[in-house]
Each structure stands twice: as structure tokens, then as C-alpha cells.
Amino acid sequence: MRERLALQAAAAARLACDLAAFLVPAIVYIASASHEPASWDTAELQGVPYILGITHPTGFPLYVLLGYVWSHALPLGSIAFRLNAFSGITLAAAAATAYAAALLLGAWRPVALTASLWFAFTQDVWSHGVRAEAQNLAVACEAFAVYAFLRWLRGGSDRWFATAFACFGLGIAAHPNAIWLAPGLAAGALIARNRPSLRLLAISSALTLAAVLLYLYLPLRSAYVVGHGLDPTHVLPGAGGGIFWNYNNPSTPAGFIRALTGTESSAPHFLLASLNPSRVQDALWAFVSGIGEQFGAFVLVLVVFGLVTAWKRDWRSTVFLCIACTAALMFSVTYPNEADVGRYRLFALWLTVPLVAVLVPARNASALLRAGVLAFLVAGTAFAFAGHRSYFERRAGEGGRWVIDAVRPFVPSGSAIVVDGWLDATSLAYGAYADQSLPDRIIVSGWEPAKMGLYRSWAAARPVFILTDPHAVASLAGAAPPIRLDPYHELFALER
Q1: Crossing angle, helix 79-104 and helix 2-32, to 10 degrees?
Q2: Which residues in the chain come in under a pLDDT of 50?
Q3: Short-list 232, 229, 236, 267, CA closest to 251
């Protein structure tokens, strides 16, 4: 009887760890997520899925489609909160998968759990876990792919191999940065004890392609938006596809190519540049410095020892893990047009969990080693949580809500136009198209002085307002004196 109770208690403890690996970060992310719209890309990703629109390149179709279902199936809180929570759930799933990968490598459960929670509460991860972010979903898909491939590499059935490639394709459909998983998958297949058959490779490649074909959502949805006049900017000659509804108008071949390639930000050029072998040292330094900044120097030491330990136990799995999780760093150190490079490095941080946890095996580990490493990880997790608890401090009207409220009294409803830069235009578009807190306004992103003639032609039919930074623009010819909204925002009304 006593032995049975001991077995039941052990099973309950294992289940508690398994559940906590996902539920703890998920609850924390949801509880600390903002209910207000943000600005920049975040506001776009808070609003576009709700209206089933089209984002900036590369469109992120899996994120948009799943976000649409999530935001309509669970109508809790604001639309912004729903999409923030959705992204938090996906990043919590990635953290739980890091825990599962550590167990697969033989780590002791409590150590694997605390390592995954520390990862979840680092500044870079938590800050992305509380906001709408397509990279979060991509990281989750990459984590699923890596776990499935590890199962196959360690003797699992061929279904695990095919699953890994299906998740790889879904990751690309969430965000193209997931394509950097390819070198790891290729290396893993080449060094495996039992290499995949041609039939398995064909099936797996077909699954990847099927997932990537989700990008057909862009031209199909764009054609529907154009055909039904859903994009408010369609009444503006020369406006092109409007943000939120029809960015780049991918119903046209040229627009579809721009959406897929990101040529407007020179992404293809920098992708080729990232293949330069000289970038390897920069990527290695980004990995080392990233761990040091997020976890501290002591964890960096543990990662080194963990890498040696993992290599001795299973060098094939170790090679695969290291390549699969860090290859994307090559692009992150090359691409200069990124204001938030941390989101391109989340998956490299994910590698920290299995490499640290593998130091304490589930069996035959000394009590001193278990106690010492576990105590260190518990302390680190607690300090990380306490150090970033400010994410729980949310106030009404934060983020991009203020600019929506500030513009509303001065821009009349009834198809008035607001031209603004991307940073605040996404906040205004969220209010105009998503939650209707700025209804019946048309938002145009990308104010350019060279297009003033175009803006004035629009003003002949409807009111046109231009939101600018007074430090950059003192006055506009043909505009009334500006309305000062704050030290960095002035609203010009074009004369009709």
C-alpha cells in the first residue's frame, strides 16, 4: 500500500511539472498583457487578424488565420487583449516544448521545469509574450518541429520526421524567419543513424509545401477585399493598398511578390548577405551575449558544461539542436532594418533550456548536484520574475490608445483622411478598422512630402489631416495652423 501511494505521488508530481511548464507562463503572460492597442507592428498584429486583413510583408498568414479564429471564438476583453493573449499562449507553448525537449535528453523534471520558467521570465521573452507578435507563433512551430525531429533522431517512428517537417512549414507560414530551421533539419537527416528514405523525404517535403501554401491566403483575400470594396483607401486615387485591409494589394502579381519577398525593406539582399561565412563569429557572439544579458554569466557557464554533457550523451542530437536553434542568428546580425532584433533571437535563447537542464540527469545524479543546480535555477527564476513584474502594471489609455483619443475630436467622422507615419498609423487604423473607437475615418500610412500634391487632390473631396512630428516639420504649405497634440505630434488640416 505504501509503495502504491509513493508511485501515485510520483506520478502526480510528474503531471504537476508537465502542466506547470505550460500553464505558469501562459497565466503570467495573459495576466500581464495590455488591454489597449499598442503602436508600430504590434498594433497592426492586434487588429489585422480580427478583420481578416493583410499585414505588412510577409503577410504572416498562419498568424492571421489563427488569430481570426481566436479573437472571434473567445470574445473576452478588448480585441488588442485577445491577440496579445493569443501570442502569449503560443510563446508559453514554446517554453513548455523546451521543457519537453530537455526531458527527451534525459533531464530531471524539476530542473527542466525551472530552466523553462526562467527562460519564460527573461526580459526578452516576457516582453514578447505580452504583445501580439507573429514571431511567437513561429517560435512555437519551430519548437514543435525540433521536438518531433529529436523524437525521430532518437529512434522514434517516421511519423515524427514527417511531423517535424509539417511544423517547419507552419513556422514559415507564421513568419519566414522559421526558414532558418532548414540547415538543422538537413544536418540532422544526414547524420542520423538511420537516414530517411526517399519516400519519407518526399512525403515530408509535401507536408512542408502544403503548409507554406497558406501564403495563397494573401492574393485570395486581397482579391475579395478589392472586389467587395472593403479597403477604405480604395476611394483614394493613387493610394494603393491600404494598411490593415490590403497592404501592397497582393491580388496583383507585383503586389504578391512584394508581400512575399519584403523587397521594400531590402530583405532579400540581406538574406543573401547573411550567408557570408564571416558572419558566423557575429552570430556566435550574439548567442553568447544574448544568454549573458538575459540569464547572466553563471548560466552561460552552465550552458558550456551542458553542451559538453549533451555531446557525450548524444552528439547527433546535440549537433542538430545547436544548428537548428542558432542558424537564424546569421540573419539577425546582418539585417539592419529591424527595430526589435530580439524577436529574431528568441529561438536561440530557447536552446538554453535543454542545454542547462541536461546537466542533471533524471537518474544516477548525486543529491548534491540536484540540490545545487535546482536551488540556483529556482533563485534565478524568482529574481527574473521579480525583476520584470512591472509588466503587470497596466494603465488605461496606455500604448496607442492616447493617439486615437487625441485625434478623434479634431478629425470628423464621415470618411475623413488621416495621413501619418507607420508608428502611429497602425494605432489609428486599429481604432478605425478593428474596435471602431475611431469610426468612419480613412488611415493612410507613410506620409511623404513629395506626395503633397496627391494629398491635396484628395482634399478636394473629403477632409485630409496630416499627423507629423513638429521637430521634423515646422509648417505645411496649403494647410491651416497645426493643432498641437503633444510635444511630438501636430495635426495639420489641408485647406480644401
Answers
A1: 140
A2: none
A3: 229
Q: What φ, ψ does residue 475 adopt, rounded to 5°?
A: -155, 160
Query: Position of cell 498568414?
Result: 61
Given a contact cutoff of 8 angstroms between Cβ atoms, the answer to whether 310 and 354 are in contact is yes
B/e letters for 318-339, b = 16+ CB within 10 Å, e = fewer, are bbbbbbbbbbbbbbbbbbeeee
Q: What angle do CA 209, 178, 302 make, to 5 degrees?
A: 140
Say how far apart CA 467 and CA 416 lie, in whole Å. Answer: 13
CB contact set of 421 (below 8 Å; sequence gap of 6+): 445, 446, 447, 467
| Region of 494 on the Ramachandran plot (φ > 0 left; ψ -120 to 50 alpha; else beta) | beta
For the chain, the farthest-separated pair of C-alpha atoms sits apart, in whole angstroms, at 89
Tracing cell 517547419 back to the chain, one arrives at: 168
Residues forming a β-bridge with 107: 361
Per-residue DSSP letter, 334? T
What whole-number distance in Å separates Cα of residue 242 and Cα of residue 54? 9
Give the per-residue pLDDT at 8: 76
402: number of Cβ within 10 Å: 17
Q: What is the dihedral of CA 50, 52, 55, 57, to 10 degrees?
A: 140
Query: Could you give the CA distance from residue 115 to residue 113 in angstroms, rounded to a whole number?
Result: 5
Identity at 334, one-letter amino acid code: T
305: nearest Cα among 260, 265, 357? 357
pLDDT at 274: 83
Question: Over the stretch 121-165, which tens digit does the pLDDT of each residue have?
Answer: 999 999 999 999 999 999 999 999 999 999 999 999 999 999 999
| Cα dihedral 276, 280, 283, 285 sign | negative
